[in-house]
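Sorry to interrupt, but I need a hand with the structure work. Please put the record directly below this note.
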Amino acid sequence: MANLANIAMLAELDGAILVDKPVGISAHDVMKAVKTRFNLVKVGHGGTLDVTATGLFVLLLGDATRFSNDLMGDDRAYALTLTLGRETDTGDRAGHTLKEADAAGVTREQFDAALKELRGDIYQSPPAFSAVKIPGKTGYEIVRTAEGDELRERLVHVYRYDVTEFAPPKVSLSFSATKGVSVRALARDLGVALGCGACVEDCRRTRCGTFSVDDAVPFVKMMDLHPTDLAARLIPKNRLRA
């Protein structure tokens, strides 16, 4: 009877769950695993996240899936570490190397000047390739994820950058931007501006709209939650829009 009660309770869940996604698993796989684990009927999201990235992933359950487009339009913030001197086809560390150069001579002044040009309204095209996790293996498969019109430049807006560590070839920074910004494209374009290439070493999404990763439950821990504990973490529909 208890299991039947849990199933009935979960079937009626409408709202959002904040998940801290680990590296090496896709956003789609997170959705699939949660749906299966808790016998959910409808699961959506408020914005996808690269398999090589970690951080805030907003899961939408039940009738709350209708808010998906609204939440995907929210601003977001990231913390990332870049590797200067390496350009890859995916724009991150998992990709195939296209070019390598010595970045030891890049100064903070040069870096700040390049960042300045990538602030405010900017046009960017997404990387043509992405890293996909290979089931049962530790590596990634590189697949084409954009071509033709999908590679067209699009207008996005970056609000701010804050450099937290500058020690070439590694540089760490945080930034906030509108929807549609490609972190991997930003790294690629920054590397072009510096003349040495650059790629994303680590990326963590820290905020989506009003939601923070500080309030998210780690994915592995979430999969061990009792259904009543999952329900207790639910953000109701009336809090999904201001």
